[in-house]
Write a structure and sequence with these properties.
CATH topology of the largest domain in chain A: TIM Barrel
Oligomer: heterodimer
Radius of gyration of chain B: 28 Å
Helix content of chain B: 40-55%
Strand content of chain B: 5-15%
Number of strands of chain A: 14
Strand content of chain A: 15-25%
CATH superfamily of the largest domain in chain A: Aldolase class I
Shape of chain B: elongated
Number of helices of chain A: 17
Radius of gyration of chain A: 25 Å
Largest interface: A-B, 59 and 55 residues
Largest sheet of chain A: 7 strands, parallel
Number of helices of chain B: 18
CATH architecture of the largest domain in chain B: Alpha-Beta Barrel
Structural class of chain B: alpha/beta
CATH class of the largest domain in chain A: Alpha Beta
Chain lengths: 489, 476
């Protein structure tokens, strides 16, 4: 079969997020900063992709964004612009404009919302093909609602003169394997699903277009290079290093997840996603904490000196947060909730404070008065940490889950918090902690009880020291918050 | 056309199978259950999905059908005889026929997902093997993981001894399609408790339901009302049992029914492994909810309990959290009280907002190290991972005796208190500085008999706002 592959369509392309300013207009300066951040590590960029919230932008905004992108990139790497719209007519119009503007190619999503049949999808692309710009087919059934079948992909990949590639974000590995079987060598095949991108590269994908490549373009370039030289072991190892991050970005509110991640690692001006996506929505607060932990593990969160005593102490501080006030720790409260699954959720109420204050006094009193069913456990001496079960512990299974699994999760969280500069070493002699832990009576899976308590405790420590949530966060969510037990089943 | 010997219809309970703690069948409990329901029903369905048929041996199935025949007082027994394979289905159906069943209820073959042709051949083979046995087809995609295809049903309806279909899907477009294409030849029985009225109004002739052993009289009322064209009555009856029906359908089926029967004083035993009586598909919270609904329905008595709102000087009401009158007065705290609503959902909130650094902070921290059973304090959240500040503890003033009462505090009341505090912060009534420097105690007085979450939430919000307004108004 005649190859239509082009040289520029290979490697790592971030699906760039779109920053908005305080007036909900495109924030040009921040967008340029993002491109400059990614450019050293990538082979191309994608403005107006799904992660770029193209579906929440006007035609004029999309054109503006593509223009800025072309200007900032200025020919150093190809610009693959998202130009897919719901109707054929609109898609052609934007694709024609993009061709004039000078993009290298257009990423054209399957027509969405009204679900056209396969032959209607085929004819849609047949029309877009006539524009004459190199076209990349784009399968993303999670959003579009329609899934290419391998015969559609094969038919379009072969039939259309200007179709030079396909991006598959479905995560459907059998589909991608069929596409490789039918089309490898004919068009460029890209994986768009962060969780399986390493596997797809090893299977023969020509490149990746990923939301997470905004955050870790360097690691994706490393994985791509390893795959190119056939170093499967390195691909597997690095993919595993970033798997949690990939799972969050791919499943939990992509654009918002990436934007909050970027704020953490060094773009403090990055906005939230546009409505209807919100902070604390699909990208839940527990995901924020998870993502932050993962970025810390990848050494992406800046360690800064924050005021304490005469010289200050190192603290792992997201670039958009104010340094925490560590000098007055009379009594701080932090809460953490982590799942899944439901029956193994962890919910921790953490009290952190001076040994001489309310927390220290409470520990002293409690130790003198322990009772059956609510036995407290001193699980660590430095910082002194008391574990208190929230509900009465009944039975050997519950005892094991609380005093072994949950306790070891809490303990490990403390250890990592200290190692990773979430809990400054300088405080440890002066403070003490009370962790109220909740284990559901239906819990069974011991490993999840431990890990969820670990995650909840990491979050609770950070929130206590950083005094989160802020007033603004509380006010923003006062009415939209969904309390799980408020409603009848 | 041949004459059809049996036309299923009316109200038929899908009986649970009571198992003992040792997993053996408790025949006495099973007989007592049948005797409890028989007067209000038109037939019995042993060995259905609710009866955990897939965990029974052929001998056990035959025994359960036999007992149902003995206890049925002349009413028809529709025996569940489905299996994953055709051969076993025929054997079970023959056993049932010999035991005296009036008809067999045969589920779509499951697990290996046969083709449409295979499904047709399955039912056709059973019907031909037992030509005198009336057969009812059974569509339940929730457990089979496949729909019994309408086109297959349409053709099967031509076989003389296939007399009906039970549709448990709850998908009314499917039910209507069956009525349209096979309604002339098959009796359509609704098997989904949440849409009984709708299906009957559309032309179904009766029902086979898990909940028909809990409130058969309600379903008789719905059936009679629909038959006489009184939709108003039918609607109000259906809605009366809507939530319980939903819990039965979605949270464990037979397991949930067993819990309901148990709460009503009818011993229905345990489910068989791997299903758990509680803590699996049916969580402890759901069981508490079943109890609440049975109380509303008058099936069980709401436990009487004394309930008084705290009275006397406001500053003296915080002794329970370790702050006596003098301590409160000297602490420089803001104090307020509010009460809202009438009846069982009335709420009183006594609120104290005091500095962390001092006896209020000490008492606050101590509460979280020393939970008192039935009066457990909890921190207040808008939702998980979104606590409020000033950090706020809610403490019930009435002892929480069960999970239902606890749910009322941890759900609607907690959410309302959180919203009220944030609302008063946003309005500047609580000074922003207090977020870092103060903590709050909320003593929440809620009637143990409160049932309506929506009203409880509204009253708790109103009472907390009033308490905050009073606390901070005095100061200014």
């Amino acid at each position: 079969m005649e190859s239509k592959k082009v040289d520029w369509f290979r490697g790592v392309f971030p699906a760039l997020v779109t920053p908005f300013d305080a007036h909900d207009q495109i924030d040009e300066a921040c967008f340029r900063e993002l491109i400059r951040f990614a450019l050293p590590h990538v082979n191309g960029v994608v403005p107006c992709g799904t992660t770029g919230e193209f579906s929440s932008m006007s035609l004029e905004e999309k054109k503006r964004l593509i223009e800025i992108c072309l200007d900032e990139v200025s020919g150093r790497v190809p610009v693959l612009a998202g130009t897919g719209c719901q109707s054929t007519r609109e898609t052609i119009s934007l694709t024609e404009w993009a061709k004039e503007a000078g993009v290298s190619g257009a990423l054209v999503v399957a027509p969405y919302y009204l679900k056209p049949t396969f032959n209607e999808v085929f004819d849609h692309y047949a029309e877009v093909d006539k524009v004459g710009l190199p076209i990349v087919l784009y399968n993303i059934p999670q959003c579009a609602g329609t899934h290419f079948r391998w015969w559609t992909a094969e038919g379009m990949g072969i039939a259309f003169e200007n179709v030079i590639g396909m991006k598959d974000s479905s995560g459907d590995m059998p589909f991608f394997m069929a596409a490789l079987e039918k089309l490898r060598g004919t068009i460029g095949l890209f994986c768009g699903h962060d969780e399986i991108a390493g596997a797809a590269l090893l299977a023969g994908a020509d490149g990746v277009i990923l939301a997470s490549a905004n955050l870790i373009p360097d690691i994706w370039q490393e994985i791509y290079q390893a795959a190119q030289r056939g170093d499967a072991e390195s691909v597997r190892r690095r993919q595993r290093d970033i798997q949690v991050l990939c799972r969050i970005v791919a499943n939990k509110g992509g654009p918002q997840a990436v934007k909050e991640g970027l704020r953490m690692i060094g773009l403090p001006g990055m906005s939230n996603a546009r409505l209807p996506l919100i902070q604390g929505g699909e990208f839940e607060r527990e995901d924020y904490e998870d993502l932050r932990t993962q970025l810390e593990n990848l050494d992406k969160i800046p360690i800064r000196q924050v005021p304490l005593g005469s010289s200050g102490v190192p603290y792992s501080l997201p670039s958009d947060l104010e340094p925490p006030h560590l000098s007055d720790l009379t009594l701080r409260v932090g809460e953490g909730f982590a799942g899944p699954p439901f029956s193994e959720v962890a919910h921790i109420d953490l009290l952190l404070g001076s040994k001489l204050g309310p927390v220290g006094k409470a520990i002293e009193r409690a130790q003198a008065q322990a009772r059956r069913g609510h036995e407290i456990a001193l699980i660590r001496q430095r910082p002194m940490t008391l574990l208190v079960p929230t509900v009465t512990v009944r039975g050997a299974k519950a005892r094991r889950l609380v005093y072994e699994e949950a306790a070891s999760g809490v303990e490990l969280a403390l250890k990592h918090a200290i190692e990773r500069h979430n809990l400054p070493e300088a405080l440890l002699d002066d403070i003490c902690l009370i962790a109220n832990v909740f284990v559901h009576p239906a819990a069974s899976i011991r490993q999840r009880v431990k890990i969820n308590n670990y995650k909840a405790m990491r979050a609770a420590i950070r929130k206590a020291l950083e005094e989160r949530p802020s007033l603004a966060e509380m006010i923003a969510e006062k009415d939209a918050a969904r309390h799980p037990f408020r409603y009848a089943p | 056309m041949t004459t059809r010997p049996f036309r299923p219809g009316g109200v038929n309970p899908a009986l649970v199978t009571p198992f003992g703690k040792d997993q053996s069948i408790d025949e006495q409990a099973y007989r007592r259950l049948i005797r409890h329901v028989i007067a209000d029903v038109d037939g019995l369905v042993p060995c259905g999905t609710t009866g955990e048929f897939n965990y029974l041996t052929p001998d056990e199935s035959r025994r359960l059908i036999q007992i149902a025949v003995e206890e049925c007082r002349g009413k028809p027994v529709i025996a569940g005889t489905g299996a994953a394979g055709t051969r076993l289905t025929i054997e079970l159906s023959r056993d049932a026929q010999e035991a005296g069943a009036s008809a067999c209820l045969i589920v779509t073959p499951f697990f290996l997902h046969p083709s449409d042709k295979g499904i047709y051949q399955h039912f056709c083979s059973v019907a031909r093997a037992l030509p005198d046995l009336p057969i009812i087809l059974y569509n339940i995609p929730q457990v089979v993981d496949a729909v019994l295809p309408r086109r297959v049903v349409q053709d099967l309806a031509d076989i003389p001894n296939i007399v009906g279909i039970k549709d448990s899907s709850g998908n009314l477009t499917y039910t209507m399609e069956i009525l349209e294409y096979a309604g002339d030849r098959l009796s359509v029985l609704i098997g989904h408790d949440e849409v009984v009225l709708n299906a009957l109004a559309g032309g179904a002739s009766g029902m086979i339901l898990a909940s028909a052993q809990v409130y058969p009289e309600v379903w008789q009322g719905v059936l009679a009302a629909v038959r006489r064209g009184d939709l108003e009555t039918a609607r109000s009856l259906q809605l009366q049992v809507q939530k319980l029906s939903r819990i039965f359908c979605r949270y464990g089926g037979g397991i949930a029914v067993k819990q309901a029967l148990k709460l009503m004083g009818i011993e229905a035993g345990y489910p068989r492994s791997p299903m758990k009586p509680v803590g699996g598909a049916l969580l402890h919270e759901d069981r508490a909810e079943i109890q609440l609904e049975l109380e509303k329905l008058g099936k069980i008595q709401t436990p009487a309990s004394a309930h008084d709102f705290p009275e006397g000087p406001l500053a003296g009401r915080f002794v329970s959290v370790g702050l006596d009158l003098a301590a409160v007065r000297d602490s420089g705290s803001f104090l307020g009280s509010g009460r809202e609503g009438t009846g069982a959902e009335a709420v009183q909130v006594d609120l104290l907002c005091g500095p962390k650094d001092g006896p209020v902070g000490d008492a606050w921290a101590y509460q979280l190290t020393y939970p008192r059973h039935g009066f457990e304090a909890l921190t207040t959240i808008l939702e998980p991972n979104l606590t409020i500040r000033p950090s706020t503890l809610i403490i019930p003033t009435n002892e929480l005796q069960d999970l239902r009462q606890a749910n009322m505090i941890y759900g609607p009341v907690q959410n309302a208190v959180a919203q009220a505090v944030v609302d008063r912060l946003a309005k500047g009534i609580i000074p922003e500085a207090a977020m870092g420097s103060h903590v709050i105690f909320v003593l929440a007085a809620v009637n143990p008999q409160a049932l309506d979450r929506h009203r409880l939430h509204a009253n708790a919000f109103g009472a907390t706002c009033a308490a905050i307004d009073q606390a901070f108004a005095e100061e200014r």
